[in-house]
Design brief:
It is a single chain. The protein is built from nine helices and six strands; from the N terminus they run H-H-H-E-H-H-E-H-H-E-H-E-E-H-E. The chain is α/β, with parallel strands linked by helices. Strand 5, helix 9 and strand 6 form a beta-alpha-beta unit. It is globular and about 60 Å long.
């Protein structure tokens, strides 16, 4: 047994020399005890604690527009910060393992305050198929799937679907963004989900127009549905 352990450790040492594991934020070599992100970067990743209060900044931004149950964003948005760097790596550099890291962090934190109590499905903001094809993946898949495994809640990408191609949001103002996405989503077989509670997961909430449109679609199309929102971060 000791021999096998030593062999394993030796093997890991060789692997680390050949293919050092790097911090996904700063690219420094990770120590054995570090996973995905180094301790230094981790110490700069700050939780918002928004979910401790029902009326928090995310809920306050979204609830006047759409009737949501709960809403929170996990991490404090800081313009030059680690959250943005990690989300950028997740979205544009195919580092899907960051989704798993976020899910583990979210689980360890949210398990204490019942955010997922009575939730039936975790679903992502769907990408248009064309965009998903370009990127090769939905950046929330690993996050949602791992979160679902941790909380034993099904993660489903087949319920809320993208209907029409929306133009890029970046050059539009809040009202234009809202109009642009308001008819962009549809539900597959809404009769199957009557009375269910959905948590929509998203990476960054900016104006909130996209996620509001998702929530609205669910509430309009599925009888007695409930919607909550979990974002990685929100821009103020
Ligand atoms: Zn680092």
């Amino acid at each position: 047994m000791v021999f096998i352990k030593r062999l394993k450790r030796g093997y890991n040492d060789v692997l680390n020399i050949l293919y050092p594991r790097l911090c996904l934020s700063c690219s420094n070599v990770l120590h054995d005890v570090e996973h995905y992100v180094c301790h230094q970067c981790l110490s700069n990743l700050h939780l918002t604690n928004f979910d401790l209060e029902k009326t928090n900044p995310v809920y306050n931004r979204l609830s006047p527009i759409v009737n949501i149950e709960k809403a929170t964003a996990l991490f404090v948005f800081d313009k030059s910060g680690i959250v943005q760097e990690l989300i950028h790596q997740l979205k544009y550099n195919n580092h899907q393992e960051i989704g798993k890291f976020f899910a583990k962090t979210a689980h360890d934190y949210l398990i204490e305050n019942n955010f997922f109590k009575d939730v039936d499905y975790i679903i992502p903001v769907p990408l248009h198929p064309k965009k998903q094809q370009q990127r090769g993946y939905n950046q929330m898949t690993e996050f949602g799937r791992n979160l679902g495994n941790f909380f034993s809640i099904p993660y489903n990408e087949g319920i809320l679907l993208r209907e029409t191609y929306t133009e890029s949001q970046t050059k539009k103002n809040a009202l234009q963004r809202r109009e642009n996405v308001s008819s962009a989503f549809k539900i597959d077989k809404p009769e199957k989900y009557v009375g269910k509670h959905f948590v929509i997961v998203d990476d960054v909430i900016t104006t909130g127009a996209t996620i509001e449109a998702c929530a609205e679609t669910i509430l309009n199309k599925i009888s007695d549905a409930k919607v909550s929102i979990l974002a990685l971060t929100m821009v103020f």
